[in-house]
Amino acid sequence: xxxxxxxxxxxxxxxxxxxxxxxxxIVGIDSINELTARANALMEATETALMEAIAVCHAGVQVSExxxxxxxxxxxxxxxxxxxxxxxxxxxxLHMLPEIKVSLEI
Length: 106
What we know:
Layout: E1 2-7, E2 10-15, H1 32-56, H2 63-76, E3 84-87, E4 100-103
Antiparallel strand pairs: 1-2, 3-4
Helix pairs in contact: 1-2
């Protein structure tokens, strides 16, 4: 889910993952238990990646370092991360410039 909060003239874009789907449309998954276990592992890995990424944030840290921390956690848990992403931040307009581009040299 992607939700934008508007407060005191500023937008903040937020998102939260929820589990939705059917096992019969996912290739390589043989049972609902396997699907549930894999989905839960993904949710746990993404929560860990988020918290670890927040922990490295401070003045002078490059955005790519934040992405590297998240990539390493995804990789350690058997998941892949996007190496080139773009996002926005908090501003007076939703999805306003500048875009924050992340390219990981992995």
